[in-house]
């Protein structure tokens, strides 16, 4: 039986046992990944979405465990054929399965029609399952166009942003904190519109080299705002990620342990931790320790080299990271991220201090990364 | 024959063959390391200084080669007994020998008398050969006091700073560039006053997360200013280092290759490259490649962990770095650098984004680092 058929058959019992209304499931399945004019929709992602919704509504433990085998699809080669592995009801334990993604900025600095085509079709052509859309300026996204293109290419999407110094939920200035919450809210709306399932990044503070450490009042503002945003996002089937970044990009969360602490204060099941190999290489004792610290709260992973260029050409210990993810039975997306002054988003490139060319050819870079991940990720 | 006696005997022939006037040699030997009330001065450092002066004045190749065995002293344990190894005139090739240093900020955030005592005596007690004095604000240094304390403790000194956004030789605003040159000049004066032999750090731009990339005019200003400063510094027997730092601390030099390029434009023998394992872990393909790129222009090395805490607890591959330094027959100082919010310099800590405690006890940290370097550095 084809994997997509298998998944389709399982949708109804899954949503029923998860206690998620079918109407809500369908909404997400179809807005997110239904492909008009094609015979299949992205079944693994549909299942992923139902299970995520279920998780947000506190499903029975049995389902939660079963869901681990269904949180994505991995293309073992550049040929994109979504796969569904065994479920919890099968006799054998489920084999891991992950969506493999690529960051938009690998392809394009902006979100014009031409850039959408480049990023989405380029990613699809190389066998990626998802593309991470930058939402630093949510108004810049042409929602219907982006959604249509994602659907046509059978690509899943996630979205990411870093808040801004003047729109920062971790500010102790209530106006700036409110502006940060508004920006997050807009990002969630746009993410839902394009069919993304995750909004992650520096959602808890500004993407910014802070001039001083965090304040108690600012931290409280961040916690309160994220709790509210997480509740609203869950209504749209969207999870909020806390990306752990290095000290130059935030003063609030630089380690997995710090993320877990904030997460426990936020106390909402729709918030999760997002680790990134580039940042871990700077801040963590080891990637293994960071992965272990997060446990099942780790639900998004960025794969980036130490200098943000070609994978395998820097100092990140990828075998150790992949071994840690395998040991943790990590099932979430694994998204490649890289930056070079070759592809420039005027806002993001300067904020991220991209001063030199680490690569010239987006396609060669992304193809290399896909092959690298396929080769190393053997859980 | 005791090593100090051996070195003393060699001072005169060395200075003669290097073509350095004896008066100038003596000035540096005695202002830098002479210890009234003690029977010996720091002979290896004295020789180091003569040879450096010689090098600035283009010595014969023969002397340059011979000098490699004399550029410092390494204490093999916490017992501080300077050692002179074989010279070029000996039958066997010289064994490497390096001064092992520690950054002031390991001990204290400021430069008061109490803080001087803590930093200098603390370093000496643990067997370090030199201490790196922060010169971000040269006026804050009590020159006679610091010099006296260094002499009393038989400690060599180097000095470091990062220029400031409003005093930045790489600015294309000529007033800001001139203010940067003035700050460097003051730093060199203070360094000479306390007996330091090196002024290094971000001497070529501001220590700053730049809002955009470098400009052609700014780069030119930096080159011109450094050429002038290097000439003035050489008159005081001081070398200028270009510390290669990560993208968040400068937009001009993030890799060894970029440093070598700027160095060739400056074109003065008194300017050298300073590599740092913390920064290399972010920016370089590998420490080995970086060390190789610099060749004999590498004359200062910072040893720091990936998160700037305890050595060996992060992701820096120290065995590979030390192997590369040994292969390059590196003879310059090796200085441990670490930062924690436990020891705070209000200016530097925020600029370096030190948001968390990576350690509590300066002495334990520095002792651990000394033992770590002694164990790993076996060239």
TrEMBL record, chains A, B:
<dbReference type="InterPro" id="IPR036237">
    <property type="entry name" value="Xyl_isomerase-like_sf"/>
</dbReference>
<protein>
    <submittedName>
        <fullName>Xylose isomerase</fullName>
    </submittedName>
</protein>
<feature type="region of interest" description="Disordered">
    <location>
        <begin position="58"/>
        <end position="92"/>
    </location>
</feature>
<dbReference type="InterPro" id="IPR050312">
    <property type="entry name" value="IolE/XylAMocC-like"/>
</dbReference>
<dbReference type="GO" id="GO:0016853">
    <property type="term" value="F:isomerase activity"/>
</dbReference>
<feature type="domain" description="Xylose isomerase-like TIM barrel">
    <location>
        <begin position="124"/>
        <end position="350"/>
    </location>
</feature>
<feature type="compositionally biased region" description="Low complexity">
    <location>
        <begin position="68"/>
        <end position="78"/>
    </location>
</feature>
<keyword id="KW-0413">Isomerase</keyword>
<dbReference type="InterPro" id="IPR013022">
    <property type="entry name" value="Xyl_isomerase-like_TIM-brl"/>
</dbReference>
<dbReference type="Pfam" id="PF01261">
    <property type="entry name" value="AP_endonuc_2"/>
</dbReference>
């Amino acid at each position: 039986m084809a994997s997509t058929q298998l998944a389709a058959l399982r949708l109804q019992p899954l949503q029923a046992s998860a206690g998620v209304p079918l109407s809500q499931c369908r909404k997400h399945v179809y807005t997110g990944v239904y492909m008009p004019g094609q015979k299949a929709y992205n079944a693994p992602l549909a299942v992923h979405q139902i299970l995520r919704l279920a998780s947000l509504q506190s499903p029975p433990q049995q389902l939660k465990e079963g869901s681990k085998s269904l949180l994505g699809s991995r293309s073992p080669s550049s040929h994109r054929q979504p796969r569904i592995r065994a479920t919890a009801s099968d006799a054998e334990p489920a084999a891991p399965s992950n969506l493999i993604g690529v960051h938009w900025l690998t392809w394009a600095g902006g979100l014009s029609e031409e850039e959408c085509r480049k990023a989405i079709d380029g990613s699809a052509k190389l066998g990626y399952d998802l593309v991470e859309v930058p939402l630093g300026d949510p108004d810049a996204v042409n929602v219907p166009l982006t959604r249509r293109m994602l659907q046509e290419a059978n690509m899943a999407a996630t979205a990411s942003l870093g808040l801004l110094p003047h729109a920062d939920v971790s500010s102790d200035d209530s106006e700036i904190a409110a502006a940060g919450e508004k920006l997050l809210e807009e990002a969630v709306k746009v993410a839902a519109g394009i069919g993304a399932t995750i909004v992650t990044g520096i959602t808890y503070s500004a993407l910014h080299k802070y001039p001083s450490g965090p304040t108690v009042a600012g931290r409280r503002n961040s916690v309160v705002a994220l709790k509210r945003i997480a509740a609203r996002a869950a209504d749209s089937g969207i999870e909020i990620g806390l990306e752990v970044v290095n000290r130059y990009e935030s003063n609030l969360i630089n380690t997995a342990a710090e993320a877990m602490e904030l997460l426990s204060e936020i106390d909402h099941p729709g918030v999760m931790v997002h680790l990134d190999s580039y940042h871990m290489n700077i801040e963590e004792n080891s990637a293994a320790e960071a992965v272990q610290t997060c446990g099942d709260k780790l639900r998004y992973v960025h794969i980036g080299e130490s200098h943000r260029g070609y994978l395998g050409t820097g100092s990140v210990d990828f075998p150790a990271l992949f071994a840690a993810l395998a040991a943790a039975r990590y099932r979430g997306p694994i998204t490649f991220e890289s930056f070079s002054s070759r592809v420039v988003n005027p806002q993001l490139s300067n904020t991220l201090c991209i001063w030199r060319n680490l690569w010239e050819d987006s396609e060669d870079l992304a193809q290399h990364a896909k092959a690298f991940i396929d080769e190393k990720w053997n859980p």
